[in-house]
Amino acid sequence: MSRFDIAVIGTGPAGLEAAITAKVRNKNVLLLGSTNLSPKVEKAHTVQNYLGLPQVSGEDMQKAFSRHLESMDIVITQDRINTVYAMGSYFALQGHAGMYEADSVILACGMSAAKPFPGELENLGRGVSYCATCDGALYKGKSALVIGYSAEEEKEADFLAEMADEVIYIPMYSRETSLNEKVRVLSGVNPVSIEKKDKRVILSLKERNIETDGIFILRESVAPSQLVPGLELEKNRVVVDRKQKTNIPGLFACGDITGEPYQYIKAAGEGNVAALSAVSYLAEMKAAQAQK
Ligand SMILES: Cc1cc2nc3c(=O)[nH]c(=O)nc-3n(C[C@H](O)[C@H](O)[C@H](O)COP(=O)(O)OP(=O)(O)OC[C@H]3O[C@@H](n4cnc5c(N)ncnc54)[C@H](O)[C@@H]3O)c2cc1C
């Protein structure tokens, strides 16, 4: 089995930028993920805040990213990694399609949506969103519904209320809510499924249905602890320092997996830093081995 210098897990902006930077630094890179890149890129309606690509649709952004990879001969290995094992001086990666080895690893897996509702993924970017600060502007003068899994999400609902005409908030927790008076709180109800009807989305509750223009599902991320045993986490986000180092030597993390803000440019920037840190790590390893 050939061993790579750097394995990058994830093909969103974080992973792509990490792979590009590693390639610029002449490293042998394994980029694992999907040739469709990221659903969070593909499904974005209009992106207004990515440098150099004003008012770009997610689809066009995806094409621009793919062209960039092609221009640098970076190939994506289509696979999903189940587990990353730290073996001491290298890492073993277990994927659906096989095993891989690399001297260093960059986690750029994004924030996974846990247990999606039926109809949720199909309508992501078509009335369903995971990010009020990203998509809120699309609901100016419209109605929106927020399903919040922790009190921290209340500020997102308040933010939406600044733009939308009507905001309903469904807390999926028992703590008392504290929201802008414009937000209507619907406690003690049970969301079941989501469907799209014409330009509206319908949330089916056990109790009744609610029709709205957009549904925001704000969950805490799934623990990446399943992916890397022993990885230090804080509220399900991977703990990193300013060099994107995790608690495991040779393992770096970037993008949504390291926590808020969930933004393309932040993800790409962290990908750049993670790759440069991985390059430094490899140089240190090489120097240490030469001294033995
Ligand atoms: C509809 C929508 C609109 C948005 N609009 C904006 C916007 O306008 N502006 C903005 O700045 N941000 C926006 N965002 C947020 C932005 O999409 C995210 O912050 C960004 O995509 C995070 O990039 P990432 O690379 O960290 O993760 P992701 O883009 O989520 O990419 C992670 C990748 O890793 C892959 N992956 C996960 N686990 C594995 C595994 N085990 N093995 C292999 N591959 C794996 C996934 O399939 C995915 O391809 C929007 C998000 C959505 C959903």
Description:
The protein has 292 residues and is an alpha/beta fold. Helices cover 24% and strands 28% of the residues. The protein is built from 6 helices and 17 strands. It has helices at 13-24, 39-42, 58-71, 132-135, 154-161, 264-291, and strands at 3-9, 29-33, 76-78, 81-86, 91-95, 99-107, 128-129, 143-148, 166-171, 183-185, 191-197, 200-205, 209-212, 214-218, 233-234, 237-238, 251-253. The mean pLDDT is 92. Bound molecules: flavin-adenine dinucleotide. Residues 9-15, 32-34, 37-38, 40-41, 43-44, 47, 49, 80-81, 108-110, 125, 129-131, 134-135, 255-256, 262-265, 267 line the site of flavin-adenine dinucleotide.
Rg from Cα:
20 Å
Provide the structure class.
alpha/beta
Q: What are the low-pLDDT stretches, counting only 5+ consecutive residues below 50?
A: none
User: What CATH architecture label of the largest domain applies?
Assistant: 3-Layer(bba) Sandwich
CATH class (first level) name of the largest domain = Alpha Beta
| pLDDT averaged residue by residue | 92
Question: End-to-end span in angstroms?
Answer: 25 Å
Largest sheet report: 7 strands, mixed
Ligand inventory reads:
flavin-adenine dinucleotide
**Total discrete domains:** 2
Tally of helical segments: 6
Shape: elongated
What is the H-and-E element order?
Answer: EHEHHEEEEEHEHEEEEEEEEEH
SS elements, strand count = 17
